[in-house]
């Protein structure tokens, strides 16, 4: 049969036309499925961010300036602030050394968690040094000639020395260890029962260094007793800036710039905790969404469904969802595939080849074939039925050619 094509039609680059109504329905169905998990994830993320940004105003760390508990030292810190002392609370040696400068005071609440290198860095610092209950091996570096001794019970002691801070306090409460010295240059105040011992030591040198044998003197529990507050405030308030260093066991830094990368200073300290929480959250969500009860296996169907029933069932689903675009696309794709096989076209043949081949085998123009096989989706059921009949008629013409 000879084709009478008068106009050559070139279809657009996109040969499949989607039904916007169906696409919208699919999007709504997807949103309905995922909105609950998204809400849960959003709530968890907000909780994590709130916990990260809502930094607590207090802590439970012993001798910390933000700890209001009996073992904390918030009362001492607050009184110093009212007297005009600026306090910088740090937990790492790196931060402590950054604030190191002549005319500043550096308070070290404990040396038990410090390494030998960190103690050596403290010995080389320029700030006035205040030590609370330093260990004997730290004293060998920070205060040569000063050692520790032991005492039992709690007692009230008088200054009995010419240090102005100790004389102003007059009496303090002391419990636990005390100091003993072999150096005549070290001043011991608040002596105990044994000769040559004391609870407060002043070490001479290029910078002022003092040591409290009993750290509890600065705590909220004992600050108001006797002259504890006077001694603590005078020892820490010599300069307008005080660095309050509470060492951490996890800190091993020994230099003000150790381990820093460009821009690392701008990162908040809580960033690591937030990232860890987010990582745990991602793992939990991945496990939740990807869980399996076992390996995937094939299961034979209990009944065999005839192809005609499956086709009718699929058609009913399309009709119920008013998915005319999908139904029309299925009809057109099937017709185009069968006609291409009938015409001997390869599987790689494009829409243009199919249109030209069908037009040559029938009495239709390329424009008519393109509109029928690759046209827009029908707008109603009647148009869909009409399209099905026209495609069936076109296939019949191709078979007869």
How would you briefly describe this protein structure?
The protein has about 400 residues and is of the alpha/beta class.
Description:
The protein is α/β, with parallel strands linked by helices and 401 residues long. Among the domains are: 1-10 and 323-401, no CATH class; 74-254, Rossmann fold (3-Layer(aba) Sandwich), CATH 3.40.50. Helices cover 43% and strands 12% of the residues. The chain contains 13 helices and twelve strands. The protein has helices at residues 20-53, 74-82, 93-98, 116-123, 136-142, 164-169, 228-236, 271-289, 307-320, 324-342, 351-361, 366-374, 381-400; strands at residues 86-90, 105-108, 128-132, 146-149, 154-158, 171-175, 178-181, 187-189, 197-198, 200-203, 209-212, 241-245. It has a seven-stranded mixed sheet. Strand 10 and strand 11 (209-212) form a beta hairpin. The protein starts with 19 loop residues before the first helix and ends with a helix. The relative contact order is 0.14.
């Amino acid at each position: 049969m000879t084709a009478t094509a008068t106009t050559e039609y070139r279809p657009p680059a996109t040969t499949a036309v989607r039904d916007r109504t169906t696409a919208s329905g699919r999007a709504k169905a997807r949103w309905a499925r995922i909105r609950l998990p998204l809400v849960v994830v959003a709530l968890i993320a907000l909780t994590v961010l709130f916990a990260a940004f809502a930094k607590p105003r207090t802590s439970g760390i012993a001798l910390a300036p933000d700890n209001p508990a009996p073992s904390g030292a918030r009362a001492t810190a607050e009184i110093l602030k009212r007297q005009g002392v600026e306090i910088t609370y740090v937990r790492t040696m790196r931060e402590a050394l950054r604030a190191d400068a002549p005319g500043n005071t550096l308070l070290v609440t404990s040396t038990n968690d410090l390494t030998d290198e960190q103690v050596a860095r403290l010995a080389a610092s320029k700030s006035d040094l205040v030590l609370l209950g330093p260990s004997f091996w730290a004293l060998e570096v920070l205060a040569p000639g000063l050692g520790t001794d032991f005492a039992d019970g709690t007692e009230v002691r008088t200054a009995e020395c010419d240090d102005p801070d100790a004389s102003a306090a007059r009496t303090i409460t002391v419990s636990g260890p005390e100091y003993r010295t072999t150096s005549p240059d070290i001043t011991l105040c608040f002596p105990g029962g044994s000769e040559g011992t004391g609870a407060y030591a002043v070490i001479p040198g290029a910078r002022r260094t003092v040591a409290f044998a009993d750290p509890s003197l600065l705590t909220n529990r004992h600050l108001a007793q006797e002259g504890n507050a006077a001694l603590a405030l005078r020892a820490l308030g010599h300069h307008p800036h005080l660095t309050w260093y509470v060492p951490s066991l996890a800190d091993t830094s020994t230099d003000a710039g150790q381990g820093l990368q460009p821009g690392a200073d701008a990162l908040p300290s809580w960033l690591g905790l937030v990232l860890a929480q987010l990582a745990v959250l991602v793992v939990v969500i991945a496990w939740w969404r990807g869980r399996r009860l076992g390996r995937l296996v094939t299961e034979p169907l209990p009944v065999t469904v005839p192809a005609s029933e499956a086709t009718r069932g699929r058609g009913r689903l399309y009709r119920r969802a008013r998915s005319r675009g999908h139904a029309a696309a299925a009809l057109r794709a099937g017709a185009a595939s069968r006609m291409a096989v009938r015409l001997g076209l390869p599987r790689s043949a494009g829409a243009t080849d199919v249109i030209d081949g069908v037009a040559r085998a029938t009495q239709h123009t390329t424009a008519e074939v393109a509109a029928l096989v690759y046209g827009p989706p029908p707008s109603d059921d009647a148009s869909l039925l009409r399209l099905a009949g026209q495609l069936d008629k076109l296939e019949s013409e191709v078979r007869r050619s």
